[in-house]
Design a protein that fits this description.
Nuclear Transport Factor 2, Chain: A, 5 helices, disordered N terminus
């Protein structure tokens, strides 16, 4: 019986060690570092305005100049920045009394589709998101890393990594370049 207890204890320790940062594949280390850095940049609003950090010029510059994001990621990120800047669209779930806001229903069909896809923060679940994500699993075959929100056990986010010119890069995260069926851990979108 002591052997079984020792064996179970030994197995538990090796599992714990395999998820430590040092023992993770380089693709996972790069992805967690880059995505968590982006998420930490987005904890709230700019000091001088109501601009989300996600869309402020400093964060945009950081993303666009970061060699660890693919060009496809940067393009989709740019679409989210544009969508989040559509603050002229009236909020439908509250009485929006801004005289200059435009009803969603007055937008063109193309604008409505764009707003439906990009008019919200791509890492949010409801109105919030965790400060960082933690590694759960990595599938080397398809490049998907599954993460959770640490204490937010029901927050599941996929990160897509690819090896481009010998460097691991983030090609997708949250709702950016991630297929809709893998976004369910982030909850429903507004529409």
């Amino acid at each position: 019986m002591n052997v079984n207890i020792f064996s179970a204890s030994k197995k538990s320790n090796s599992t714990k060690n395999s998820s430590s940062v040092q023992n993770q594949p380089e693709a996972v280390r790069v992805a967690l570092s880059v995505v968590n850095s982006l998420m930490k940049r987005n904890q709230g609003y700019d000091n001088d305005s109501s601009t989300l950090f996600f869309v402020n010029p400093e964060t945009q510059s950081w993303v666009y100049n970061n060699p660890r994001f693919t060009d496809d990621f940067k393009t989709e990120y740019s679409n989210y920045v544009t969508g989040l800047n559509m603050d002229y669209v009236c909020s439908e779930d509250i009485d929006d009394e801004r005289p200059d806001c435009v009803s969603y229903y007055d937008l063109s069909n193309e604008e409505q589709q764009f707003y439906d896809k990009y008019g919200f923060y791509p890492f949010q679940k409801g109105q919030d998101f965790p400060k960082e994500v933690k590694f759960v699993r990595y599938n080397e075959k398809d490049g998907y890393i599954i993460t959770n929100g640490g204490e937010w056990k029901d927050y599941i986010m996929y990160i897509k990594v690819i090896n481009e010119d010998g460097q691991w890069k983030v090609d997708g995260a949250g709702r950016i370049n991630i297929p809709k069926h893998l976004q369910t851990g982030l909850g429903p979108t507004y529409r």
